[in-house]
Amino acid sequence: MTFDPASYVFSQPSAPTAIRASTVLPARRENVELRTGDGHRLVGELALPAAGEVRATLITLHPLPTHGGFMDSHVYRKASYRLPALAGIAVLRFNTRGTGSPRGTSGGTFEGGIGERLDVEAAVKFAVDRGLPNRWLVGWSFGTELALMYGATEPVSSEIEGAILLSPPLHRATDVHLKEWAASGKPLKVLVPEHDDFLLPAAATERFRLVPQARVLGVDGAKHLWVGEKYAARVLNEIVDEVLPDGSGAAGGTAAVLPQEWNGPVATAHG
After folding, report:
1. What is the pTM of this model?
2. Phi, psi of 158 (to 5 degrees)
3. Of the candidates 221, 240, 35, 26, the residue with the CA atom closest to the CA atom of residue 136
């Protein structure tokens, strides 16, 4: 059965609510479908601010589906729960070809990052067609490979502002792709866990020297999957700081700090 984002039940607490892993804040949420250039139907969800303008748009690319990655991977799920309300940011999540989640299963089969080029293009086209502004790719693990391989060339490059990478393994993405990003001039923010399973901060810094505009940030204590509210919150803060550079972040060059409490209607996600 396809998950319906309208099924969240909101209530108004009598006091501000601490934002926890399962806390869902108000947003306009809708199930969406993307169509790829080779005819596949991809399932996803778009979460928009409940009121006010959309200040930025995240097009999320999930971790490796053959190892449990999908549109509900926890950092992206929390982004959709929080960022529309806390920062006015739209969050587009979707399952790449052959990937399933409670939302449903996308058409096609996993193609190791090759056919997924058309999935990235379909997601960006959807965001453009919906008039969503200030569009950024956000890749996590396998998703960073897709962002690096396809984000700096057309038809994607001219439609996005840049990309944010979480735990890049740099397995599929090569120096050729890094040089394409360098030539594009578009910003790259690269968050590398101190205890990553594939690429540690020092090695990432060296690899990304090919992209002069890339900013590599090692995150002390974190692991590849960003498990723990402390690390998920750090990722969301860094994302907001990158995509809203108009003073939304904290002073002194540090990342934005999103509120940890919400004074308004809330729902609780289950499962």
Report:
1. 0.95
2. -75, -10
3. 240
Report the greatest alpha carbon distance in the chain: 55
Distance CA 140, CA 35 (A): 22
The C-alpha atoms of residue 111 and residue 98 are separated, in whole angstroms, by 9
Rounded to the nearest 5°, which phi and psi values hold at 204? -65, -40
Secondary structure in 3-state letters for 26-62: CCEEEEEEEECCCCCEEEEEEEECCCCCCCEEEEEEC
101 close to 24: Cβ distance less than 8 angstroms:
no
Task: Calculate mean pLDDT across residues 265-270.
Answer: 93
Whether the CB-CB separation of 261 and 18 falls below 8 Å is answered with: yes
Q: How many CB atoms lie within 10 A of CB 123?
A: 26
Q: Determine the Cα–Cα distance for residues 173 and 229; give it in Å rounded to an integer.
A: 29
- Tens of pLDDT, residue by residue over 67-116, are 999 999 999 999 999 999 999 999 999 999 999 999 999 999 999 999 99
Amino acid at site 92: L
What digits encode the pLDDT tens for the residues 14-72?
999 999 999 999 999 999 999 999 999 999 999 999 999 999 999 999 999 999 999 99
Which two three-digit tokens encode residue 148? 């690096």
Calpha distance 125→198 (Å, rounded): 31
Q: Which residue, 261, 267, 269, 259, is CA-closest to 16?
A: 261
pLDDT band, residue 250 (cuts 50/70/90): very low
Q: Other C-beta atoms within 10 Å of 74: how many?
A: 15
Q: CA–CA separation, 216 vs 159, rounded Å?
A: 23
Strand-pair partners of 93:
45
User: Is residue 235 a contact partner of residue 241, using CB atoms and an 8 Å limit?
Assistant: no
